[in-house]
Amino acid sequence: MNSSFSKRRQRTRTRLRKLGNGRARLSIFRSSKHIYAQLIDDAKGVTLAAASTVDKELKSQIKTGADVEAAKQVGLLLAKRALEVGVGPVVFDRGGYLFHGRVKALADGAREGGLDF
Q1: Enclosing domain of residue 50
Q2: Which long-range contacts (CB under 8 A, 24 or more apart) does 12-19 make?
Q3: Res 50: pLDDT
Q4: Rounded average pLDDT over 54-83
C-alpha cells in the first residue's frame, strides 16, 4: 500500500500533527457515491462529531451524495454538531485528496456553519 495517495495522506497527517497544537482534526473520506466527515480528538482517540450523506437528516434533502451541494450540506451539518459538542478551532485533514470540488465545498460549508480553520 505504497501508492501515491497513501503517501499524500501520510504527508498531510504528519504536517497536521506538527501544526495542530491539540486541536480537533476534521477528517474526510470521499467515495464515488457519498462523502463522510468526522471530528477526531487525536489525544484521546475519540470521534467528537460526524456527518455524511447517508445521515437520515440529509438523505431526504439531497438528490445524490456525490455532488458539490451535498458536500456543502455535510459541512454545515458537521459544523452544527461540532458547535453543540463545544468544538471551535479545528485543523482540516483533506487526506490524500486535492482541495478542490467536493472537498473544498465541504470545507466551505463547515466554515460557513461556524467552524474555525
Answers
A1: 4-113
A2: 12/93, 12/94, 12/95, 12/96, 13/93, 16/91, 16/93, 17/42, 19/91
A3: 97
A4: 94
